[in-house]
What we know:
The structure holds two protein chains of two kinds. Chain A has helices at 2-23, 28-55, 69-77, 83-96, 102-112, 130-137, 147-150, 153-161, 163-166, 191-206, 219-234, 252-259, 269-272, 274-283, 285-288, 301-315, 319-349. By secondary structure, chain A is mainly alpha-helical. Chain A is elongated and about 95 Å long. The two termini of chain A are 49 Å apart. Chain B is globular. Chain B has two domains: 31-221 and 231-297, Cytochrome Bc1 Complex, Chain C; 314-416, no CATH class. Helices cover 65% and strands 1% of the residues of chain B. In chain B, helix 5 runs antiparallel to helix 6 (123-145). The interface between A and B is large, with 55 and 56 residues.
Amino acid sequence: MFALYVGVAVAILLIVLNIVLSKISFPKEGRILAIIIVLVGYIYWGFEPFAHHEMHPHVEEASFAFDGKQDVAALEHEGKDATETKAFWASVLKTAEHKGDAVAGKTLFTANCTACHSMKSEGFAELMSDADAAASYGVTPPDLSLAGKIYDRNFLIAFIANPVKAMHIEHKYSAGGEKVFPMPASDSLQPQEIVSIVAYMVEAASKVPAPKVKEGASEFEISKAANKEVFETACGRCHAMGYAGIQARTPADAMSKYIGATPPDLSQYIRSRGDHYLHNFINDPQRKLHGTGMPRVGLNEKAQEQVVEYMTQVGDSKKDEREALGPKVLIYLAILALFSFLWKRKIWKDLH
Amino acid sequence: MAEFEKANSIGEWFDQRLNVKAFTKVMMTEYWIPKNINFLWAMGALLVMLFKLLLITGIFLLMYYKPDVNLAFDSVNYTIMQEVGYGWLFRNIHGVGASVVFLIIYIHMFTAIYYGSYKKGREMIWLSGMLLFVLFSAEGFSGYMLPWGQMSYWAAYVITEIFGGIPFIGDELVVWIRGNFYVADATLTRFFMLHVLLIPIAIIGAIAFHFYTLRFPHVNNEEGEFFDYHAESKKYLAGDKAHSKVIAFWPDFLSKDIMVIALFMVFFFYLVFYNNGFAMDPVNFDKADSMKTPAHIYPEWYFLWSYEVLRGFFFEIGGISGKDLGLMAFGFAQGIFLVLPWLDRSPMVKPANQRPVFKYWFWLLMADLFVLTIFGKLPPTGINAWVGFFSSITFLGLFISLPFLSKIEAKMAGGK
């Protein structure tokens, strides 16, 4: 209905415009041009921004606070009981107040995490091949070398305490349900111990050197290599990126068994979903696409920007070239238009 | 064979063999165009320019495109967009050009309707123009399939399915068009052939014919005035260009066309570089997947009005299903513009705003087409479905009532 009201407004605008322009003896061709611009503008607005707005309902913008407020709001919006979720995030925020001890964290990490997880930068190697790990756990467990750098601290604390709640995938792994998430919630760890493990991960990640690039690499290549590292850790266990030669670490058949579908290749997602959608989606997939198999991965703002930038660097690799060439072409055409105007004026001088 | 004397210049050499001077006079310097026109008369030349851009970029794209369901998507989005030098530029020009060419076609077409340029001896101009519209529509539809994205696939599915509604032969016809029981490799390869061979040849022929149809009735002018071209051209040739009602096709008319084209190209290339999402739908950057229907299926913007007429009838009326009614209305919408010269029975050749009845008809039609276009993209649920229904009814009603309304106008004009 809104589009119709705007249409009526446009019609009134046109009539007023026409009357005003004819009163001030505005050139007739200018009046015709003004009418066409208004009409084309209206139709463009209708089938592009307005239609997209109607087809893709607005969701809240991405938030990197990881304090559970959005989860609670979502549950309350659906009219569901949010008491448990509220209590969980309250305890997470309370835990986060503790100060971690990286040395103690290393001991705890060795005892609690390395049976399944590798951390290659610290010498904790993978115990199985990707395929075997996928067969054992359902999905290949992540290497945690970069975890302290790319994931939000609150999220990591929440994750260690209760992975399913942190990732916002209770709809797939409900308590007492058929499916069990491969990583158990750690009921035995004390809050102080959890923050110490996180402190250790942060310290370990800070020691990881920047990825190697060939000598004389351009700024673009250096940033692309750094972004690729984040992308592979954050997304590469499930998603392929064919145009960059990246295959998902978990084999496709294991993946489809684990999640019920093969996660899409992300090569063209920057074009098909766009920057804005990806930012909101990655931040909390459930909010944008209710019921999706993709968990919230808990990337902090910087890491998420790197992921989206990498998707742009791969999926829209000529963006820089396009943006550099654009002004030149437009200036050339503007000069051409100027000369064609002068020529036309010269020819038409004799005709009037 | 005629005696050929030694030519004194290259021009003379060609003139002896091709009669270039006389040909240039007939086609350019003494081809007369009315002076009383505005920039809307430049849309024809602008369309020629856009068609050239499409043809040239199309030829380059053809060098790397692979018409195979397994290869098409990556040949466009990886090879052309990322590997080939400036391949992205050629694709963007082609994609944006295909969309913008319809904008200019519509402006061209509604200019003709507004100024009554389909009447009194100009019927063949109108008919050949509408033939071009049909050919461009087929070209646009077949080309949209080639990147083999989700929208390519599902638009192909929905549009070919429409033919299934034709009585008796529908089901067989759909299979015949698709070359398979569903949209498949055979569908892609045949629409590829249509897009790069048969339809472009037909378009080039139709353009030539369209130009030819202009020759005898001459281009209409801003006031729909009829005058003696012979007398006016004599004035022009005698040097009294200022008082002659005609101008020469070259350089007078084309100098203005070229100015309009150059100005438009600034806007066009702005779209090519910075705002091409409207012409290259994001959904089409997902590879075609016959198992996954997109949440919303819609055609490109220039087909939205007729798509909305197709789905405007969503309930049974008088024992005929909504689907069949929609199909009939759709067929009506496709064909009705073609017979416009015979629906408008008023003899007035004037701008719509100077015609007592037609002006309301024209602006109502415009408003209705805008509503159809905008609602054609929205999900047809709730109030949207009803807006679609009433605007479709309005569309049909406008064309059915035109012969009567224009007759009234004819009487009013006759009474004056």
